[in-house]
Fold each of these.
Amino acid sequence: MVRFLVRRVLLGVFVMFVVTIVVFVIFFVGPGSADVARTMAGREATPKTVALIAHRLLLDRPIYVQYWHFLDGLLHGNLGYSYYHGQPVTSILKQAFPVTLSLALGAAVIWLVLGVLSGVLSAVRNRSFWDRTVTVLALFFYSMPSFVLGLLLLYVFYYQFTLAGIHLFPGAGYTYLTANPLKWFQGLVLPWTTLALVSAAAYTRLTRGSMLDVLNEDYVRTARSKGLSENRVIYRHALRSALTPVVSQFGIDLGVLVGGAVITETVFGMPGLGFTAVQAIENQDLPVIIGIVIVASAAVVVANILVDAFYAVLDPRIRLH
Amino acid sequence: MALLEVSDLHVSFPTPDGVVRAVRGLSFAVETGKTLGIVGESGSGKSVATQTIMGLTRGARVSGQALFEGIDLLAMSPKELRSVRGAQVGMIFQDPLSSLHPYYRVGWQIIEMIRNNHHEISKAKARERAVELLRLVGIPQPDRRVDDFPHQFSGGMRQRAMIAMAMSLNPKLLIADEPTTALDVTVQAQVLQVMRRLQEEFGTAIILITHDLGVVAEVADDVVVMYAGSTMEKADRYETFGAPHHPYTEGLLQSLPAYGGERERLRPIPGQPPSLINLPGGCPFHPRCPYVMDRCRAEMPPLFEVGGNPAHTSACWLSRDQVERAALRTKVVGQPLAAPAVP
């Protein structure tokens, strides 16, 4: 088990190393040495700033020295400096990250519970009225873009509610959990619902298919032959195996989401990583974009390591070999 | 009274292609402490029949009666049936690898079964019992192997672990559905031996479902031969192998390689088993039967007594006189039946 995890972590470190090389090549080598400082400086930068950047990035030194300088900074938690905002990238991301994390984790819990439970129900009552209702709903939300669903929710629960004098959900913005837990929650309900409904649909289908396969397994028949209750057969015996593909999908989705839920954050005006990335692109604020790319990659890598660890907990055949 | 008495069992499954008539009028009885062998080719309905009786088939149309200690299993509520499954009737299946849950320890799976029916037994006590059961079925170092996962067991050990689990509540009946089919021949013998030993020790009745006549010859007291969902012949082991009446039974025996003795060509039964959706009229075996008569195509024969022996019945229109039947056999097949030796 320990060896398995160590191997996965090392692999993750290697992937991150490759990511830094790719990022470095794209942003520091690609533009050509003459233009790197210029592109980093953002729009409306003075020649003085450009010269300062060239000096800070060691642009007059060989490329491998530049790369080492870049990597050394990353390892010390230094993601660079945003000349557009006039502050370190780390402090910009430190503000944005909790927003995205709150959004992603909350939505993930909702869609996982919703998706798995409706998927199980759908599989156990295969072809029943329930199954068909769940399937239709799942396809409905699955095919709905999140900006449409988000705007619809805003129209009903913010606009119409506000007209009716009910101020339950804010129209935009984000309140930090530490500042006001209730406002934090109120502000997140609609974004959570948007993300969760769109994603839950995929999990319903995934869980249903996986459960239908597992319910035909011999060991489920064995469980029934032991005289176990139907609930125990379904949740303890069948669902445990059926969760494997769900968990791996979940890891990937969550990892991607933690890197920024661009559309949802933009619709609800939440200053998370996705929103910050969109703004950085508009402002040609390259250092921030680089920072977000690296944080987002790290999120995917970490999520995959967690998935593998969870796999090992689920399946002894992985743990023991 | 027999422990389990099944009469006129019909099982069919509606499918988009038509109704699959998997079992058509099956009747048999198992006595306490005895072994009944149910023999037939794949698709003859032997597994479906027992699994339906125990409520393990879904979406089936069922009729008939299955009296277990006088109470009809087919009329029970799912909850009542659940209390019979496991506690009174243990079951083991063909593929021991896929029949054990790959994610749970072997011991855990046995303990789960014990504690599911006896909540008052502590985990430690149930574990002791699991170790003892594993020892009983011949697992070496059972106190250590109890914590192994199924994939750490060999095929034979897995099947023995399945038997240990099925026997953990001292059931009155053990249904073994092709228990040795997926195993090596040497391991087959060990598994059969374990089953027989447990039967002697606990007086358990066994229904042994198999397509392997060798296995039946070794352990069954009585034999039911099934074809296309119906009973073809019922007799004790000696009659089945020594003086079979039904042409299908005869065909099965002749397609068996003789052990020792003279080498001769195997005689497979020509043709294929019929589709269960589109069964031929009359006797389902008539398209493949060397003795076929006009009557066979029109009318399904009921089970007749053979040779005045009420324990030997055969669903065939041929003469029920054993001497006449043997003469006919010599005439059609060209030689008398070369019966394999019954151990």
Note: The beta strands of chain A are 81-82, 87-88.
Amino acid sequence: MSMLTLKQSRRLQTVLIGGLAWLVALAIFFPIFWMILTSFKTEIDAFATPPQLFFTPTLENYVHIDARSDYFHFAWNSVVISFGSTLAGMLLAVPAAYSMAFFETKRTKSTLLWMLSTKMLPPVGVLVPIYLLFKDAGLLDTKTGLVIIYTLINLPIMVWMVYTYFKEIPKDILEAARLDGATPAQEIVRVLLPIGKGGLASTVLLSLILCWNEAFWSLNLTASSAAPLTAMVASYSSPEGLFWAKLSAVSTLACAPILIFGWLSQKQLVRGLSFGAVK
Amino acid sequence: MADLTIRNLKKSFEDIDIIKGIDLDIKDHEFVVFVGPSGCGKSTLLRLIAGLEEVTSGSIHLDDRDITDVAPAKRDLAMVFQTYALYPHMTVRKNMSFALELAGVDKAEIDRKVDEAAQILELGHLLDRKPKALSGGQRQRVAIGRSIVRHPKIFLFDEPLSNLDAALRVQMRLELARLHHELKATMIYVTHDQVEAMTLADKVVVLNGGHIEQVGSPLELYHHPVNAFVAGFIGTPKMAFLKGKVKKADRAGVTVQLDCGPEYQLPLDGSRLKAGEPVTFGMRPEHIEVTAADASPFKVTLDVTEHLGADTFCYVKAQNGETLTVRAGGDYGGRFGEQVGLIPDLAHCHLFDEKGRAVPKPGAPAQAA
């Protein structure tokens, strides 16, 4: 093998890593691409073997969906539930993470792990008790009910994330604020939140995405009035048989808002998620 | 008025005692420096005074008010942190006015006080910058400015100069000394650097292992250390310690036979000592004269010599292997490996008993440790 100069080997490395990154990204994006493509096919084209890359696009699936279901009703539910649950989650996660990060005790680490361990429980294991609780409390098929359950399932991740960001903030700054006369609330609102806003924004984004995409609880706890977009998608995998093109179209409609949202905020999201790792 | 009184103060973290019972009085307008090796509890003591740590037992009084359990904000103290701890999202002006804003002081008054502090610290042209656009020295000044605007009863400094480079440290040290005179304030300053302690303090508190070894003015500590720890900690280069035995001791003097050869008679009150008792003989580098090998019974071998210009530090080895440092004149020309003699200035030498306690000068009042 011929020897490469340092410069050449660096360039080769860059090309290889870049190529690999593109490959992974394309593999991840392909299903979404195929879904969007299929949504513009006729049902017959959608079934065609071999799969067709070139076809005459049609909007008939979208027209069908518009006629059959009220997209904006579901979308509005998704928005209310996602933002409501994210707000509630942040209101709980910030004080919790504040006390864990700045008033650490011997039990803080195990509390964090315990909180995270609740995420390892299969949700279906508690479906029946929660269903019954919701039924008794009159929370079935209500947005409030979904906000509560989403907040609870995302809280461990939110606390953990916010805790990690807070850990990066020097304790001295908060102590300085305390000596300057700040109450705990002023300390959080006027010093901690402005300093940690990058990390908090990432947490908010992640929570919104998780809420938007959640399907298990929304399918089981809602019927129509509080049903979010995930429930609307599910209603298209019906006993009449699978209509791939229509299902693709409805999925595209359900994903579109959060995809656009994620695209617009990707800088913030990436910076936030790699906050602890890169440093 | 700002008299701080600390009584039997203790602090433990999860069964580990950090502060083991401290009594201390700090008077109005005093510049007090807590100094000691790392882990001696000096920062913890400062944080207890600030209210950033909870006291395990004991009390802290500011004037006649018990502040042991008072929230930090209500103690009327301001603190400058080692890391400056500026609010990164606020401008210099905001950093300095934050405390006043929280206290509900009116806008015109805040502006007046901030401008006044900015003028004292020459920060006027930086008021609209954020901390990240400032140099280390400027950040330090903002941190000080932030405490000045509040006119606190006591200023607390936690190793404020340790993040600065050597030249800037000297400059800031002078500024702090000047500030102390201008503000006529009570200041408590924590450092591990005994040069800072000596140059800044009216009163130095030497801490070791969670208790106070000695409290005194810089020169008291230098001339009359109460024990071997303080003697070794104060002074650069360090005091040399040589092992020896008491040959004869009474109220008028002590005769010591050093393990490395020579015998000296010291003008100390030896009434507590017995003949044959092991002692440590201490002498500072500046109290030793270098002479020809045959002109002194104390013969040593020159190791490395460091020429600093005005002084030369000679590291020498005694015949039994004990090492010590001698300060010689700037033009001293001794060579590596050369045999020389040492003549200690006995009036300035120290003697410590087996427990490390200083043997007192005749007629000197017994100093409490």
Note: The CA atoms of residues 200 and 279 of chain A lie 17 Å apart.
